[in-house]
Amino acid sequence: EIPASQEFALRNVIGSDVAIRQWVIDKLPNDQVSIENALILSRSRRWPLMIDPQLQANNWIRKTHAEGLKIIRLSQPNYARDLEFQITNGRPVLLENLGETLDPLLDPLLQKAKFKAGNIVMIRLGDSTIEYNEDFRFYMITKLPNPHYSPEICVQVTLLNFMATPDGLEDQMLGILVAREEPEVEKKRQNLIVESANSKAQLKEIEDRILELLSNAKGNILDDEELINTLSTSRIASLRIEERVSEQEKTQAIVQETRDTYVPVAVRSSALFFVVADLCNVEPMYQYSLEWFYSIYDLAIGTAEKFERNVQKRLQALQSQFLRLIFEKTCDSLFEKDKLMFSLLLCFKSMEVDQDINQEEKNLLLLACGGTGSSIPKPKAEWLTEVSWDRICELDKLARGPWNNFANSFKQNLQAWQAVFDADNPLDVAWPGGLKDSMTPLQKSLVLVALRPDCTVQGLQEVIATKLGKDYLEPPSFDLEKSFEDSNSTTPLIFVLSSGADPMAEIIRLAHKMGMNNQRESVSLGQGQGKKAERAILEGKEQGFWVILQNCHLAASWMGRLEVMVEELKPEDVQEQFRLWLTAMPSPAFPVSVLQNGLKMTNEPPKGLKFNLLRGYLSIDRDWFEEAGAGRGEECQHAFRKMLFGLCFFHASIQERCIYGPLGWNIPYQFSEPDRQICMMQLRMFLEENENIPYMALRYTASEANYGGRVTDSHDRRTINNLITDFYCADILKDEYKFSPSGAYYAPVFSPYETYVEYIRSLPINQMPEAFGLHSNANLVAAISEAMRILRTANSLMPKTGSGEGTRSPDAILTEATEKYLKAVAGPFDCEFVEAKYPMDYKESMNTVLNQELLRFNKLVIQVRSTLVDVGKAVKGLVVMSQELDEVASGILANTTPGVWKAVSYPSLKPLSSYVTDLCARLKFFQDWIDAGLPSTFWLSGFYFTQSFLTGQLQNYARKFKLEIDTLTWNFKVQKQALTSFRKPETGCLVYGIFMDGARWDDIDMVIAESFAKVLFCELPHIHLTPCEVSKDGVDKKTTTLYPCPIYKTSERKGVLLTTGHSTNFVMTMLLPMSSQHTEKHWVKRGVACLTQLDD
Question: Which of 106, 184, 328, 877 has the least C-beta neighbours within 10 A?
Fold first, then answer.
């Protein structure tokens, strides 16, 4: 038998305890990964390239080679000369801040392309041939957390990942804590490490000396006096050392016992670092260094409540204080949209550390109860959607605790569950079987996701409040003065901007207070401003004034220089009053090291109609307000003030409509303050220069020119043109005119400036959708959208490996899912057979449409099936897991449609499980067409390229009646809901599968009607599309009340214009009847449109 150890450890095979102890003393993290990396580095033939975002390897190399180490960067102009000098003199070089590419000059060095010239070893670098000293050492380090190096680079270097590990971080944080709490114990431990290392080194030295003498001994070794003396002295020395080691081990046990008391704090604290570090995947500006994390930890130790002789209470205080500080300090640099998600991540991590969470339930929550589908039939209940039922069945699959037989129990208590569904707040009413009282907050959140997704955020808040407390639901308001107090002259203060934010007023206000108003210089970065900014920084740090660099994201090419200048800020070279302020929109070009070491703050304009209106009015100059229209008399002033309020309300409403997603705008536009300013100037000018108010001209300048200049979507332009008519109209001059049905919003009567501000302050903080002309269901849409975004973002930050007992491994999930999806998705169509059965026919364009559709679907099916097969093989290790396959595997685990499928797919926003079900239904539709011939009704949603089907139908009509296709248009007739069987119409076609968003179809009056509460979409009955000549169109568009309703492929609505002239999303405009009490403007403001498919 081959002898083998029970567990493999690289350090036992090639490691030396003496060397490893020395590395740990030199700041190498004391965890298995870091030690193995160091062992590989020390033994490898190739030069190491280290991935080191937390600078742990950097600190270790600097400490190990304290003397003679030269630190260079590729951005330095003379780095090659420094490198040549170090190579010739045999000294170490650390090349830091590497990107994803290397300078070709380094190739000979990486390949160790040495050659001999006589007896001298030489190497060629660029144009120079230099002497090569074998003592030379070369280390390369990148701060990028997840770099992608080309295979050419990878084969030339030893790639090592020095990312912080939980074990290593835990050890370091324990050291920091014990050093503060029990300084004597930590000092004793540090001394023990050094003494132990010295003792081991002495023993090794003695052993090596004896072996050397024995190997060199000649003749009788008993006659070798030096050997005999060495053996006798070494015996005494080794006995002394062994006694010392024995004493050290006893002391070590006592020290360890004391350290073990503080382990829980170190474990929790180190776990939280990975929550904070992963935030960079949400926004590129969310970068946090290990040093910053340690400083917060140190602050928590210093500020946590102290308890005499009660260690447990002290540990609890430390944990609470650190969690609170990390939450507050991180929230200062997060956008509002990500704060609740951050609280949720902190909560989950705390629950994991306390082993107080069911991993399967957590994973299902983050997937929004998505899964591989259900075989249990849905009960007959109109209020229960297919999506909700599928989610309930996914909960049933958990099959333990409250989920045992959950689907059947739900079926039996449908009426009781309907009461929960209908309740304004489902957490305030009783749940069937007393489930609500027996469930954990996490389990209640799962039920809310399934039944009432609009209340998901409320459920998540309860999870957070129960575990961490309500303080973690309300981040402290931003305080610039407090942040300034935390800064120093070498730490840049970074404002991360959002659209519409301008922190300059805040900075100027602070400068006034700190007496620095005359000692500040502001530079707005852009093309050619780099040198000016550089000069300002150099002068500022010498003279001690503030330097404000605005819009750093616009000077991406200068960011490298900024990084160097920030790193060169040393306390001894900089005046104490100096501060460097930076403002930037989120940008991947912004230097990571500046972000990590800087003090980040977010500056967002307040959200909501009320605050938007208030901001608009507070920015108006009072003298300008009083003077406007005064020259033309009180009537002009009255009109100006009424219309000015209308304009500000219009500006606020078009900005706030964005929160309702595509119901508000197809494309979320970033309307800005200058848009409103120019409209205000034009309003005053038009009123003062004209006898009569030119409403049409004012509307045009606002909705088409100033604001409309940003609006690129034709249906959004229709919306903004309709919205402006509510405010630039003759009715606004009447005091009884209201902006919304409730009457809460109106233009106040003619009065002084202060009255308008007081009225705005009296408005409700949270506006209802009616303020924008939207249905109350729009609030549900916004709430569901926010909840799904939070869960989706949190899920993207979760580790992709199995965690926790009882959860299935990713490999098991992938194997099951690939097998299931491969069974579901049929193979590609036999296009040759279909072409023979349905050849190109002049009188039947549908044959051509069918053949073209099958070619498109075949391309998608082949991609889907081949990647699923390969993922299954990759899990078993039969093929290499390529980047493409990894994307598919990640999609299966996260229930998201992979990009490699989307690239050859029809537009779809469905999660993966629903996407596969939808794809199978489309394939079945076409297979039925092939088998049974041309269908009598067409599933409009089933087509890959819907426009080709519609064009084919027009072509059939044009050829039948010998007309030009360009002269044709469509007529639309919605059929009765009760009709289920149809004959093929003589002209045109019958289509189904269209959903109405923002309204519903009234089957009794056969018109568009207001949506029912909590019913977001309504499926339209079959529609008869009839082609007709434009000149003979029987529908009178002027007398008949018709709403031109756009049809889109997905709820996203926005699309890209293709080379064919068609949009990737917009299909056509359908004319639908309206009741006489409604106008087209009413439904345009509602954002009513039709969709060919839903999101789930």
Answer: 877
Q: Which distant-in-sequence residues (6+ apart) come within 8 Å of 404 by Cβ?
A: none
* Beta strands, E only, 835-974: 937-939, 968-974
Which residue(s) pair with 1063 in the sheet?
A: 1057
Locate all alpha helices (DSSP H) within 332-455, ordered by sequence: 336-353, 359-366, 386-396, 406-412, 414-422, 435-438, 441-451
Q: What distance in Å separates the CA atoms of residue 389 and residue 980, rounded to the nearest whole number? A: 25
**Rounded to whole angstroms, how far apart are CA atoms 674 and 656?**
17
- CA-CA distance, 835 to 841, in Å (whole number)? 11
Q: Residue for token digits 């536009």? A: 669
| CA pair distance 51, 159, nearest whole angstrom | 8
CA neighbor of 728 nearest in space, from 697, 755, 749, 763: 697
The conformation of residue 705, written as its DSSP 8-state character, comes to I
Around 585, how many Cα atoms within 13 Å sit in the side-chain half-sphere? 10
Instruction: Indicate the range of 148-162, 435-449, 841-855, 1047-1061 predicted with least confidence.
Output: 1047-1061
Distances (CA, A) of 251 to 185, 201, 240, 668, 866: 10, 20, 17, 66, 62
SS3 label, residue 73: coil
Instruction: Taking the CA atoms of 76, 80, 86 and 91 in sequence, report the sign of the dihedral they define.
Output: positive
* Dihedral angle sign, alpha carbons of residues 977, 978, 981, 984: negative
Tell me the pairing of strands 158-161 and 546-550: unpaired
Binning pLDDT at 50, 70 and 90, where does residue 802 land? low
DSSP H/E element including 758: helix 753-761
Instruction: Kindly tell me if the per-residue pLDDT of 924 is higher than 70.
Output: yes
Strand partners, 129: 124
Task: Please give the model's pTM, rounded to 2 decimal places.
Answer: 0.87
Q: For residue 738, what is the DSSP state? A: B
- pLDDT bracket for residue 354 (50, 70, 90): very high
Q: Are 544 and 519 in contact (CB under 8 A)?
A: yes
pLDDT digits (tens, 9 = 90+) for 451-483: 999 999 999 999 999 999 999 998 888 888 888
Token pair, residue 477, equals: 């308001």
Q: Can you give the pLDDT at residue 1039?
A: 57
- In the chain, what is the straight-line distance between the N-terminal and C-terminal CA atoms, in Å? 59
Amino acid at 869: V
Closest CA to 16 of 241, 203, 233: 203
Q: If you search the block for the tokens 């930050």, which residue do you land on?
A: 797
**Which tokens belong to 193?**
């490490």
The yes-or-no verdict on residue 670 having pLDDT over 90 is no
274-298 tens-digit pLDDT = 999 999 889 989 999 888 999 999 9
**Model pLDDT for residues 229-259, shown as the tens digit of each residue:** 878 887 887 788 778 778 777 877 877 888 8
Q: Which of 8-12, 202-206, 960-964 has the lowest mean pLDDT?
A: 202-206
- Tell me if 624 sits within 8 A of 1047, measured CB to CB: no
Q: Which residues face 125 on adjacent strands?
A: 128
- For 578, other C-beta atoms within 10 Å of its C-beta total 22
Q: Which residues pair with 584 in a beta bridge?
A: 496
Tokens 């000069």 sit on residue:
535
Q: Could you tell me how many helices (H) and strands (E) the chain has, helices first? A: 42, 24
* Cβ proximity of 555 and 587 under 8 Å: no
- DSSP string for residues in 112-175: T-EEEETTEEEEEETTEEEE--TT--EEEEE--SS----HHHHTTSEEEE----HHHHHHHHHH
d(CA 448, CA 458): 9
Angle at 649 between CA 644 and CA 651, to 5 degrees: 95
576: exposed, middle or buried (Cβ count in 10 Å: 0-12, 13-18, 19+): exposed
How far, in Å, CA of 275 to CA of 1025, rounded? 55
d(CA 275, CA 322): 14
Rg (CA), the chain: 36
Mean pLDDT of 691-701: 94
pLDDT at 970: 93
